[in-house]
Amino acid sequence: MTVMTGPERYAIYFLPEEGSELARFGEWWLGRSARAPGYGALPALGLDPAWHETLIAAARRYGFHATLKAPFRLAEGATPSALAEAVAELASRRPAFVAAPLGLQELHGFLALRPSVPEPALDDLAGACVRDLDRFRAPPTQEELAKRRKSPLSVRHEELMARWGYPYVLDQFRFHLTLTCRIAEEERSRIRRLLEPALEAVLAEPFAVRSVCLAVQPAPSAPFVLAERFALTGEGPAFAGTMGATVDVETAGVQAAGA
Hints:
By secondary structure, the protein is of the alpha+beta class. The protein has helices at 21-30, 49-62, 80-93, 120-132, 142-148, 155-164, 185-195, 200-203; strands at 9-14, 66-72, 97-99, 102-107, 110-115, 177-178, 207-209, 211-217, 225-231.
């Protein structure tokens, strides 16, 4: 991984495997791949282009992802290489797994893809990322805290933000791949009708989690991009999630990256 210095932020994400139906859908809808900072054309769905760009602006900048550990600046003395080594070590201890298919759902006013049933393995993976990698996180600035508080936070959210720098972790974590900003119910229904045909193949398949990703934002206004992907190679039942079955893990083309 390229070592950078300055105002960059890092995050631990789930990013769909390259070439998967889920990755193809996300790149089609957002008009970009998390592997590169550039933006491409948006799909022609009958939406006003300016409205479509507004609808996906935040999701597009972060890339089609689910957050496992929210963006953070490096703590004093921490280095990108050491962070990458720690993510690689974490991934080597965690098994890949499969969950029930995702569903198109509303979450706090925006549309997202979420597990169709509770998935403890996802919550456990995110919790490990939050706890095991926290030594690399610099404390949030007052500006960052104020931004978080623009949305009402509960007492529990404030406790979590004080301890982990982000309010939606551990028991407050909700795995999701964001598709839109907050929109009115009527607009959500309209967008849902437009997206459902494109999501048929994605939502028909079990949801496989084979890797975790280290993403980097080189400057405050820049898009997040994939820095390294780390295969989940730990021991344990291969792909044993809420699906209840054990199957072989197909990891061709996905290698745990070294630091």
